[in-house]
Specification:
single chain, alpha/beta, ABC transporter transmembrane region fold, Rossmann fold, 2 domains, six-stranded mixed beta sheet, 17 helices, 13% strand
Length: 454
């Protein structure tokens, strides 16, 4: 674009010069004025276009969120409120376009070119009147001036479009090039995981928003999990259960203390090698708008159809998948909106089983599954946990009871650990949690309670 604009300006100027050197003065003054005007124009235009792109993203993000949560919006009778929010965003977007139009109207060199064309016309007529040039030269020069107008006007319009694209590209590149605070350590330790996990005086805090004081989430936590054990992590909401598991796969790094996996500090592991051997299933399942088979095989793209089906059977998902219109080749909606919560969780379990991680983290991963299906999945999980370490964040008593070890968190601190029977005897915190989870359970042994209280 720049080279074409320069060429479109230089060629007419060259022809004007060879037609009559004295007539080059006015076009040169116009070009200099045009360059100065264009610089001011772009300097004023760029911030407006940047705000346009930001507002466009904000407007679309709000619309996407409203559409994704349309059931909640309708159930709460909030359609009018969401509509008004979108209209405010759209009006702000419109106002920014109006501001862009005002800048363009102010800086487009209509007046400047009109003055230059008039001055050139009278200068050529004066030279013609004194006999220095002929009528053909006058016509040629005025024609060349009109040729000069085209690249200058088109360039300004094109620059505004180019700046809009550049502003959008910068927003995208800012996301693509955003660097994590974690050291990915590509040359770090690589080895098959056994699954031994050790926390050594680990504390973790983070700031919810930039500029805010960090919030303490975990404080001085120490424990050891031998490879192959199943460990349940229990505690009240906000006690730091999910944060603890996020330190294992290095979603975050501890702010104090050390996390060891197989005797190696997680910071010394290659992040890719570490995460490829750790599977995590959360309550909020994310599925891609792809086929069911592609979603199950996301962590193992080379899996065969037989392996995908075996993983689905293990997760008790094969039966409902077979009833889908195209079976495993059925394309599910964005985030799996065409599936029920239990179906999404079973597909996520199948994905984890197929990837065969050495450490499996289940963060309330069976909350949306009915009791009958849960019993089947529990048997599948018990079978799948052979030879791997499993971390369970759950409110299901059946899962808590069969854990090899239970960690009890309260206010970000590890207040007790042990088996179910040990904690019932020794931990008041666990007894309170256990009684809350199981309102039908009666602790009939008063000696246990007295001993625990003592």
């Amino acid at each position: 674009l720049i080279s074409e604009t320069v060429l479109g300006i230089v060629v007419p100027l060259t022809f004007i010069f060879f037609t009559e050197p004295r007539l080059i003065v006015v076009p040169l003054i116009f070009v200099v004025g045009y360059i100065i005007t264009a610089r001011h124009y772009l300097r004023r235009l760029m911030p407006v276009i940047q705000r346009q792109r930001e507002q466009y993203g904000l407007m679309n993000a709000g619309l996407e969120e409203t559409i994704s949560g349309i059931e909640v919006v309708k159930a709460s009778a909030r359609e009018a409120l969401e509509r008004s929010k979108y209209l405010r965003n759209a009006q702000h977007f419109r106002d920014l376009f109006v501001e862009q139009g005002r800048i363009e109207a102010r800086y487009l060199p209509l007046l400047l070119f009109g003055i230059a064309l008039g001055a050139q016309f009278f200068h050529a007529l004066w030279l013609y009147s004194i006999g220095d040039i002929g009528l053909g030269q006058v016509v040629a020069v005025i024609g060349l001036m009109n040729v000069l107008r085209f690249p200058t006007f088109i360039a300004l319009f094109a620059f505004s479009v180019f700046q809009a694209g550049l502003a959008g590209a910068r927003r995208i590149l800012a996301i693509i090039n955003a660097e994590t605070d974690l050291d990915e350590n590509p040359d770090g330790y690589r080895a098959p995981l056994r699954g031994e996990i050790t926390f050594e005086h680990v504390s973790f805090s983070f700031a919810a928003n930039p500029g805010e004081a960090p919030h303490q989430v975990l404080h001085d936590i120490s424990f050891h999990i031998p490879a192959g054990q199943t460990v349940a992590i229990v505690g009240q909401t906000g006690s730091g259960k999910s944060a603890l598991t996020q330190l294992v796969n290095r979603t975050y790094d501890a702010t104090a203390g050390r996390v060891w996996i197989d005797g190696v500090d997680v910071r010394d592991w290659s992040l890719d090698a570490l995460r490829s051997q750790i599977g995590k299933i959360e309550q909020d399942i994310f599925l891609f708008s792809r086929t069911i088979a592609e979603n199950i095989a996301f962590g193992a793209p080379d899996a065969t159809p037989e392996q995908i089906e075996a993983a689905a059977r293990a997760a008790q998902a094969h039966e409902f998948i077979s009833r889908m219109p195209h079976g495993y080749q059925t394309v599910i909606g964005e985030r799996g909106v065409t599936l029920s919560g239990g179906q999404r969780q079973r597909i996520a379990l199948a994905r984890a089983f197929l990837a065969n991680p050495r450490i499996l983290i289940l963060d309330d991963s069976t909350s949306a599954i009915d009791s009958a299906t849960e019993d089947e999945i529990q048997r599948a999980i018990r079978q799948a946990q052979q030879g791997r370490t499993v971390l369970l964040i759950t409110h299901r008593l059946a899962q808590i009871r069969w854990a090899d070890q239970i960690l009890v968190l309260d206010g970000g601190c590890l207040v007790a650990s042990g088996t179910h029977e040990e904690l019932l005897r020794t931990s008041p915190h666990y007894r309170r949690i256990f009684a809350r989870y199981d309102h039908t359970t009666t602790l009939t042994d008063p000696a246990h309670l007295t001993e625990g209280a003592a």
